[in-house]
From TrEMBL:
Signal peptide: none annotated. This is 3-phenylpropionate/trans-cinnamate dioxygenase ferredoxin reductase subunit. Its cofactor is FAD. Residues 302-368 form the Reductase C-terminal domain. SUPFAM superfamilies: FAD/NAD(P)-binding domain (SSF51905), FAD/NAD-linked reductases, dimerisation (C-terminal) domain (SSF55424). Pfam families: Pyr_redox_2, Reductase_C. GO terms for cellular component: cytoplasm. Keywords: Dioxygenase, FAD, Flavoprotein, Oxidoreductase. InterPro entries: FAD-oxidoreductase/Apoptosis (IPR050446), FAD/NAD-bd_sf (IPR036188), FAD/NAD-binding_dom (IPR023753), FAD/NAD-linked_Rdtase_dimer_sf (IPR016156), Reductase_C (IPR028202).
Length: 370
């Protein structure tokens, strides 16, 4: 291959570029990104960035970026995949390449009159809004919503979190562990409302619930998930279904095109995790250079979240058989394991709250089994 184009300049795209160079690719490398910013770390945006403790955190220093010897096309959206080797861009130009890495990530689901938090520009707008707000409403009690709620409370805001499900994070952690995480809101003075949908959000920020209740809010943030950024692929040669369809090695139906990160539906699973993006990039680029699937990625599903001074860690999958291995939910410091329904001795998932050491030890054993 003489030219490889990476479409997406965030974590998955950058790690793909680095992996290609490490694996010996010395040809032309074009990196296309819809933001004007060089790659930065997203997790701090909902925490220390909102609190004004840090500015944008680069994912690589300038020397590392220079070592890539890449051609950056920033502030440019991919608008179409014209063929198996040509991508149209929003500035009217095209990029022709022998190989393509699709790393376009996700697009936040939105509600009119609300903020979202996905990009650095989103975070700047939200931080400015927080500066004058007294009451903050958060729609969605998932990890991102809870982190924003935590930051707002640290800034002294009155916070109300609204979750449509009866228990937060049920789909990720199960009901019992989701409830344990949800209790953190009350511990720190935030109001958590569950089991009710939002009807609408007023222009001035007030939230109208489906049961007729009104929640006062100067600023409202929607943290209701993302959808894969695949609109530009519609009608093109790459298969799309809840993301870019690819095998466990990130290879699409076209062997010269791979997908990584939030946009990749690998072997029927799409993982929106920081670690998955990094790990997938190593495997997918190896397969791209080989011209076939010579390696696969086993998704461990590791995710962490910092909320109200507590670190929550999770890996694997949740089941109905969950057991506290150490500590207690009441103390907000514990490790719990999830057991396989067919063999209760098999640990298939681990969740921890403020107990990183034991989590790491158990995780090591789990990774050997997956």
């Amino acid at each position: 291959m003489r030219t490889i184009a990476i479409i997406g300049a965030s974590l998955a795209g950058l790690r793909s570029a680095q992996a290609l160079r490490r694996q010996g690719f010395d040809g032309r490398l074009v990196i296309v990104g819809d933001e004007v910013h060089l790659p930065y770390d997203r997790p701090p945006l909902s925490k220390d960035f909102l609190l004004g403790k840090v500015e944008a955190v680069p994912l690589a220093d300038q020397d590392d970026l220079d070592a890539l010897n890449a051609e950056w096309r920033l502030g440019n959206c991919a608008t179409a995949l014209l063929s198996h080797g040509e991508v149209a861009l929003s500035d009217g130009t095209t990029v022709e390449a022998d190989g393509i890495v699709i790393a376009t990530g996700g697009i936040p689901r939105t509600i009119p009159n609300t903020h979202v938090l996905r990009t650095l520009d989103d975070a700047v707008k939200l931080r400015e809004a927080f500066a004058t707000a007294q009451h903050v409403g958060i729609i969605g009690a998932g990890f991102i919503g809870a982190e924003i709620a935590s930051s707002a409370r640290s800034l002294g805001k009155d916070v109300t979190v609204i979750e449509a499900l009866p228990t937060p994070l049920t789909r990720v952690l199960g009901a019992e562990m989701g409830a344990a995480c949800g209790q953190l809101h009350g511990d720190h003075g935030s109001t958590l409302i569950t089991g009710i949908n939002v009807d609408s959000v007023n222009v001035d920020g007030g939230i109208n619930l489906a049961n007729g209740r009104h929640v006062n809010a100067d600023v409202v943030v929607a943290g209701i998930g993302v959808r894969p950024a695949t609109d530009w692929l519609a009608g093109g040669p790459v298969k799309v279904d809840n993301g870019v369809v690819c095998d466990a090695g990130g290879v699409t139906n076209l062997k010269n095109i791979v997908a990584v990160g939030d946009v990749a539906n690998c072997a029927g699973h799409r993982a929106e995790h920081w670690t998955s993006a990094t790990e997938q990039a190593q495997v997918a680029t190896r397969n791209l250079l080989a011209g076939e699937t010579v390696a696969t990625h086993t998704n461990g599903g590791y995710v962490w979240s910092d909320q109200y001074g507590v670190r929550i860690q999770f890996i694997g999958r949740a089941t109905n058989d969950v057991r506290i291995e150490d500590g207690s939910i009441e103390d907000r410091k514990f490790v719990a394991t999830y057991r396989d329904s067919s063999n209760e001795e098999d640990i298939v998932g681990i969740v921890a709250m403020s107990n990183a050491r034991l989590f790491t030890r158990l995780r090591r054993n789990l990774k050997q089994a997956v």
